[in-house]
Amino acid sequence: MRLSDHDYDEIDRRLAAHDAFLRARYPGERAGRQPIHTVYIPADKLISFAEWGPQALLSMDENDFPWPDPTIRAKLEREPIEDLRVDFEDGYGVRDDDEEDAAVRRAATTLAAGPRPPFLGIRIKSLEAATRHRALRTLDLFIDTYQGLFAITLPKVSGTDQVRAMVTLCEKIERLYGLSSGALTFEIQIELPSAVLAADGTATVARLITAADGRCTGLHYGTYDYSAAAGVAAAYQSMEHPAADHAKAVMQAAAAQTGVRLSDGSTNVLPAGSPADVRAAWELHHRLVRRSLERGFYQGWDLHPAQLPSRYAATYQFFRDGREVAAGRLHRYVHRQESGIADEPATARALAGYLLRGLDCGAFDDVGFTRAELTALT
User: Fold this and answer.
1) How confident is the model at residue 162 (pLDDT cuts 50, 70, 90)?
2) Is it the case that residue 364 has pLDDT exceeding 70?
3) In degrees rounded to 5, what are phi and psi of residue 296?
4) Could you tell me the maximum CA-CA distance found in the chain, to the nearest angstrom?
5) How far is C-alpha 75 from the geometric centre of its chain's CA atoms?
6) Contacts of 264 (CB under 8 A, 6+ apart)
7) Which residues pair with 42 in a beta bridge?
8) 97-101: which pairs have CB atoms within 8 A and are 24 or more residues apart?
9) What dotted CATH number matches 30-320?
């Protein structure tokens, strides 16, 4: 061996800055449960969220739900909505200031009084010039009334300047309200092609995450705004259009190992109308949810109570279908048993993460490993 300790130290010095960058920029998957969906309810209709579970159960009973499963009914009775987003943007529309101010206060008071879903937040208007001041006012009023933790969804992001402005805003609000530094975080909605490919030809999404300075917790794909902006005809706008798949593939690459979570968008084909129409919408939603899960998007948007049964049916089936194989492979890996698959540490992390997600969403309650054991492997 010809290399000396000095040579080792020299390489360490050369790579010290890059090592620090990797630790900060790519810390790995964020610990804890990720909700399987986000339910968007316009601020003036927020009171209806308590009825989503009963309405979903009623739809199942009236329309011959094709995937009968007692665990789905139990979930809808116990925790129908995992993540609630009070919408002050497209779902709410443009109102005069007094009306929106009142809606903000009502929403914050309603959520503070409870009961609440395990995850919640608000979608403010965008930081584009026409809606910027209203977005700031709504966020300020909400924080003034609601003192708990919540997510902030920032829509129609088109470039890094908007994200940096949002970081500055969060810092300012934290100081004004005596919040701890870093308490406010936000999700970025990818609804415009300029959020994927910048005017100078660079991939915008990764730069948005960097510009967020650790405050970005999620990237949410906006199916219909993005498709329309990309010039896709209305009849062909879909979560599975090639333009959507391209955008989401870029999002996935940009977010990998950053701790930023991904959410697919929604389908606007709602389970409403005749029983045949409802079942057709369920079939479509079930297929799209399964498709997203298979592509590594473990969260999506739901816009109607009757979408909850098909969301849970598709999600539970996805995790149950792979439970036995994943647990078996992980057991053989941990115990160094020979098998026909040469699993590596990265695959073991993926297997453990898959099983944890299945436990978190309620697809199953036993996989042969404790949560602590699975967490240690991720």
Assistant:
1) very high
2) yes
3) 90, 15
4) 79
5) 20
6) 221, 223, 239, 248, 292, 297, 299, 300, 301
7) 87
8) 97/134, 97/137, 100/43, 100/134, 100/137, 100/138, 101/137, 101/141
9) 3.20.20.60
Tell me 46's DSSP state. Answer: G
Give tens-digit pLDDT for 236-259: 999 999 999 999 999 999 999 999
Rounded Cα distance between 77 and 71, Å, is: 10
Q: Where are the domains of the chain?
A: 30-320
H helix intervals, 230-274: 242-255
Helix H or strand E segment including 259: none
Length of the chain: 378
Residue 48, both tokens: 């209806």
Whole-number pLDDT of residue 340: 67
Query: Average pLDDT, stretch 90-115?
Result: 95
Task: Copy the structure tokens of residue 230.
Answer: 């990309």
**Which DSSP state fits 82?**
S
Model confidence pLDDT, tens digit, residues 296-350 = 999 999 999 999 999 999 999 999 999 999 999 999 999 888 776 777 889 999 9
Q: Average the pLDDT over 135-141 and give the result.
A: 98
pTM value is 0.95
Hey, what amino acid is at 28? G
* b/e sequence 121-130, b meaning 16+ C-beta within 10 Å: bbbbbbbeee
Which is it for the CA torsion 94, 98, 99, 105, positive or negative? Answer: positive
How many Å separate Cα 29 from the centre of its chain? 13
Residue 210 DSSP code: H
Omega within 30 of 0 (cis) for the link into 242: no
Contact call for residues 163 and 212 (beta carbons, < 8 A): yes
CB 293 within 8 A of CB 318: yes
Instruction: Report the alpha-carbon distance of residue 56 to residue 235 in Å, rounded.
Output: 27
pLDDT digits (tens, 9 = 90+) for 205-227: 999 999 999 999 999 999 999 99
Flag whether pLDDT at 28 surpasses 70. Answer: yes
Kindly provide the residue ranges of all beta strands, DSSP E only, lying in the chain, ordered along the sequence.
37-42, 83-87, 119-123, 151-154, 186-190, 216-221, 261-263, 300-302
Other Cβ atoms closer than 10 A to 175: 10
